[in-house]
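LAB NOTEBOOK - FOLDING QUEUE
OPERATOR: T.R.
BATCH SIZE: 2
PURPOSE: Compare the predicted structure-token outputs for two unrelated chains run back to back under identical settings.
PRIORITY: normal
REVIEWER: second-year student, initials M.K.

ITEM 1
FIELD SEQUENCE / FIELD STRUCTURE:
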Amino acid sequence: MSYRSSLVIAEIPPQPISSTPGEASSIDVVSAPRQRRFKSARLIGEYEKPWIEAWKTGKKGKKLSGRTWDSIIFWVAIFVGFGLGAIMCYISYSAVSNFEYCLVFEDNFEKIDPDIWGYEIQRGGFGTGSFEWTTNDPRNAFVDAEGLHIVPTRTIDDTTITQAQILNGYTLNLTTMGVCTSPDPYNSCSIYSNSTSGDIINPIRSARLTTKGKKTITYGRVEVQAKMPRGDWLWPAIWMMPEDSVYGEWPASGEIDIAESRGNNGDTYAEVGGRDSLISALHWGPISAVDAFWRTDGKHNVRRTDYSDQYYTFGLEWSEKYLFTYINSRLLQVVFVSFEGGNMWNKGQFGQDIVNNSALHDPWSQTGRDNTPFDQAFYLILNVAVGGTNGFFPDQTGNKPWGDKSLSAPREFWNATDLWYPTWGNGTDRGLNVKSVKMWSQGACGSPAH
């Protein structure tokens, strides 16, 4: 597109010009020609419109023009399209499972209700090599007007254990204190700090609340309204474990991770995702060496914000035919697993695995159910772990100050306190904050399942 401009000089009457005092002369100013006004090329006045005449003729019952047939075909196609779309939507809606549910419990955390929640207290890392010691201390798990807070703290801040004792010459024995809940008292209930061996007292204390032995479901729904913590190497989790290990030790009896995250800043931990990333997964396998979680995991990232900025609803829907996790609504699914089309042994292709020169034992297929091991009662867990040596925080990523295979990983973590501690939020910002938890069991209340 180009633009044209023109200068029009108005006519000015001749004026006398004096060259010297007493003399007068005049100069005629020549008028510039006026620019021709723009004239539209559009049709003006009366002209023929044959398409209108054809339409009028058609309305009188005479032969319709081709243009009129175009209109008819267009509108018929529109109505047929809407009709087919409605039929497809109805078929899809009819295929969606809409189960009836019975509320097992709803907790808005006016208190930590002992009829719903218990504490798991130990120091052994729960199989992940995490560095915290879990407690029932109200400084690590408490309720206020905002709900439940699970907040990690430094051991030297909340106990009489000194910095020197963390590193050497102190015995922590949760069994003699009468609080350890682990069935493995040697590895999970006691530790002696020794500067020679590199063993240290767990430098962080946190909490782990569960509904084990109190509230469980086999199929149903769970919704947890929560806000994730902020701080390097914090590991919040909302997840489920089997009430009984019917098919064997982990992961043979399964694990359901509804929502996990990392407290690291998403910009500096972008390779695997920080607190801007939400992870869901199922863990399953005949032995831990072949855990097939990578076949059934998912992740959802948010932009220009993260999961510590506001509360989100983290949900699970679980039936005999499928299981999926979601954020805020069932439309935003993080992971979806179908249990149809073959059992979990075949889906995991475990028959092809050889471990320590031996074939694996199939613990599931004898049930005849495709969803085994996810066919038993599971309970809910809320916790904040710190660090770990199982690969959740990959080596050589985000200035990680310890190595997973190091025999002194907790000490390496603790020695880097000046790096990670300033990133931890103040007060409850460093904690998992939970407004409410709801759990439903599939089936009508009063049915045999209840």
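ITEM 2
FIELD SEQUENCE / FIELD STRUCTURE:
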Amino acid sequence: MTLLTEEDVVNKTFTETRPREREVGYNQDEVDDFLDEVAETIKNLIEERDKLRDELAQSKARVGELEAGAAPEQPAAAAAPAQTSADTGDLSGPAAGVLALAQQLHDKYVNEGKEEGDRILAEANTESARIIKEAEDQHNRTLTQLEQERGLLERKIAELRDFERDYRSRMKSYLESLLSNVESGQTGAGNL
């Protein structure tokens, strides 16, 4: 699943419909305004994410520089309590402090990024579930309405068929009576 971008939200178009008298429509300006807010939020989140990635990359680069400049026993020294440069005569104390700070910043940014990602994902899932539920509800309402309209049309068709049958029967009786009158009139006229 690909994530939405600001452009996806801004460029999304919907099919216009003409609501029937019982249907509810949405104000297009309100929907557009909301989508603009969503697009702006996405843009801000992407910028913040990119900024955090840059800071993380800088921290990793600095850690790499410090590790490259440290002696082979530096990792062990970093795990040991920090020593001052006066005690050791080298930079292992400050380097270990900088490494620890870089690791703390890294962990902080990673955790914040994960929390923000989880929050955004949870919000997206909630919004997705809401939209799906609304769509299903609309589908069910439309289906129910169409079933009702179909039932009404079927009743009207049955009524029209009954009317046609009755009309044909009355027309047939009328024509037979006319024919009978004509025949009796001819028979009576033939006797004169």
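REVIEWER COMMENT (ITEM 2): Residues 71-91 have pLDDT under 50 and may be disordered.
FOLLOW-UP: none requested
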